[in-house]
Amino acid sequence: MKLVRFGKCGSERPGLIDESGRLRDLSAVVPDVATSALSPASLRAIAASEGLPVVHEAVRFGACVGQVGKMICVGLNYHEHVREVGSVTPKEPILFMKATSAICGPDDQIILPPQAQAVDWEVELGVVIGTRATRVTLDRALDHVAGYCIVNDVSERDWQLQGTGQWVKGKSSDTFGPLGPWLVTADEIPDPQQLRLTLGLNGEQRQSGTTADMVFGVREIVSYISRFMTLLPGDVISTGTPPCVGMGCKPPRYLRDGDRLELSIEGLGVQRQRCVASA
After folding, report:
1. E-state strands within the chain
2. 65-277: CATH class
3. Domain-by-domain residue ranges, the chain?
4. Model pLDDT for residues 52-75, shown as the tens digit of each residue
């Protein structure tokens, strides 16, 4: 299934995209695409629903997951990206948090903060947790995944790497976490390590890669994180980016007012964003 949240920012309603590509309203079945609605039992109830009303008017898609409790990101998790930035392949996943206030819709504007000089793009596979996970084994890790989505892990590199070098402050500005357009349930993605990711800037392809290049796969990431914190339904894990981010260009190329991004992951849809300088 392709689950969505649609409507004005802060007032989104749950929906799904049916096999004909029509948006249907799920409000009579679940209150939101969030928390307990992501459990296996709830997803089965959604799949069995009939006669859901079609939404005919043009709508905004919000972030495909609501009420996100934690957004956990993995750094330097593609071999080619590690080489591009001249780093060393990590021996275990590098973890950091992105503030949930950064989360926005897949096609919302990216606001370039005042004094930001090095705002960068990162297309990433997002993993959405469906059931509570504490110290789960590798062989059971994917059982806790509700589905997958596109994440743009927007980053201000100077704030991330200069000064005290705290990644979270370079990753957490408002609009730095577009999610969606859809949450695609795990049953439709049999192998999350065989997905192509792309990102274009102003019509020119910048990033192209495959999740097969991950240093640590989804199974390993979920199991690893669950050793240190309990993962709850609706938590989102952003699993790293392939090469050709702006920081890796020679010279570096960072986002400017008016730039347009288009991100895609095989089977997970497309995001489109326009960058706007903060007033």
Report:
1. 2-6, 13-17, 23-25, 71-75, 94-97, 103-104, 110-112, 119-120, 123-129, 145-152, 155-156, 177-178, 183-185, 196-201, 204-210, 236-238, 260-265, 269-277
2. alpha beta
3. 65-277
4. 999 999 999 999 999 999 999 999
